[in-house]
Amino acid sequence: MATTRMIADILRNHSRNNKRSKSILRQAPTRAKINKIQLRRVLLYSHCRLRSEPEPRTMVHAAKPRSSPPPRYSTFPGPDNHARTDPSNERTPLNSQTTRRPKCSYTLKIMIGLLLFIAFTWHLVDDYSNTHRTDVQERIRHREELERLKRIEFEDTQRKLAHEREDEERRLSFEEEDRRRKEEILRDEARREDKAIELEKARRKLAHMKEDEQRRLAHEKEDRSRREERERQDKEIEHEDEQRRRAHEEEDKRRKAEKEKEDRIIRARKSAVARREQTIQAKEDAMREDEERRNRAGLIWQDLTPEKRCLSYEKRMYQAKLINIPYGEDAQSWCMKTAIDIHGVTYDHPDFCTKERQDDAVSIVGHWTVTSNEPTCKTWWGNHKKKGCYGSRKMRVEAHLFNHQAPWDNWAEMCFSTPSEFDRKSFAHPDTCENNRMFGTAGTWFIDVDESECP
């Protein structure tokens, strides 16, 4: 059974190898196929024969020298038709004779083993040869491919080297040509530069010669001009000295004359101041004497009377008679020098004085213009009303004049002199005035307003 199992494993491995190397066996020669067929026939024959001939049990024991020894109990059945297990009841000992192994079966096993060894060896050799043949073909193809690639690479390298060599030769030729051209250009430039340098040197030399000549001429001219300038300056200095000397002499004469004139003016001023002081002193003495005479005379204003009409806003004329004037004095002068007290305000003198004759008597009358504490002359505006726009950004406003003392007061004078306040603005007088006997005097103002009120 073990031999059969071994042969089956060999056949299975061989068939598996045959499947793996199927493509290779197709290309193998015909003799290898014939040998393979013969080997299969021998193996089948030996396998069939082994299955038809059973092996004896003694042979198996002989094949296994390390098997267990035979049992010591009896192998014959007992009365109950069962094998005995008790060795003490065994009466018949075991047969000590050994069976001989047939020589033909041993030779057959050896032959089968040799055949198996030959088959296994042939299988290994065949498998190795097939694998080696495949590897060799692969290596040959790989080598041919490598050789072809190397040949292509070598051709490319040769072509590349040829192109590089050609490019290098062309580049060297171009460089050589450029070098020769540059050398020629440099030589031409050097020649031109040498010529230019020579021309520049000659031009500079000529320029230096001209410059030296010009400098020499300029120096000569400058020296000549300096000498002339020095001579002219010397003459000017002499002339200035002479003029300064003459000017000093004239200045001395002028100062002397001015000093004499100032002395005369000072003397004249002193005499004028003395005369003025004498005049002022005389006037002061006269005024003092006049003041003393007026005080001694006791001059007073009598019958202070206001006029009925007002001149304008808070303005009224007053008049009074000056009495106690001594005979032979200047009444007009004494009138203009006499003070008066009106409504608590002191007036040093009247505005003017007049002479009035009454009952063959001449009296001196003084006149004053009073501008305070005159309630009857204090008019005001009321009932302001807007009368619409008057042109661009102008508003017409009207108001009535109150406290007008008609018919004595002049409505026009009172209207144009009365101030007013409207819309937080102050106005010294109205723009126009109108008088209506029924409604009184009215004033009109044209005030500036915003564009929103009068566009």
Largest sheet, strands/sense/barrel: 4 strands, antiparallel
Oligomer: single chain
Beta content comes to: 15-25%
Rounded average pLDDT: 79
- Annotation field: number of helices: 7
Shape label: elongated
SSE ordering: HHHHHEEHEEEEEEHEEEE
As residue ranges, the low-confidence spans are 21-29, 53-67, 73-77, 81-97
Number of strands: 12
What spatial order of strands do you see in the largest sheet?
A: 1-2-6-5
Which structural category do the helix and sheet elements fall into? alpha+beta
Give the N-to-C terminal Cα separation: 138 Å
Fraction in helix: 55-70%
Alpha carbon gyration radius: 85 Å
What does it look like?
With 455 residues, the protein is of the alpha+beta class. Among the domains are: 300-375, no CATH class; 379-448, no CATH class. The chain is 58% helix and 18% strand. It has seven helices and twelve strands. It has helices at 2-20, 22-26, 30-52, 57-63, 103-297, 331-336, 411-417; strands at residues 300-312, 315-323, 340-342, 345-347, 352-358, 361-370, 380-389, 394-402, 420-422, 425-427, 432-436, 440-448. Strands 1-2-6-5 form a four-stranded antiparallel sheet. Strand 7 and strand 8 form a beta hairpin. Helix 1 (2-20) packs across helix 5 (103-297). The chain starts with a helix and ends in a 7-residue tail after the last strand. Mean pLDDT is 79; it is low at 21-29, 53-67, 73-77 and 81-97.
Describe the structure in brief.
The chain has 455 residues and is of the alpha+beta class. Helices cover 58% and strands 18% of the residues. The chain has a four-stranded antiparallel β-sheet.
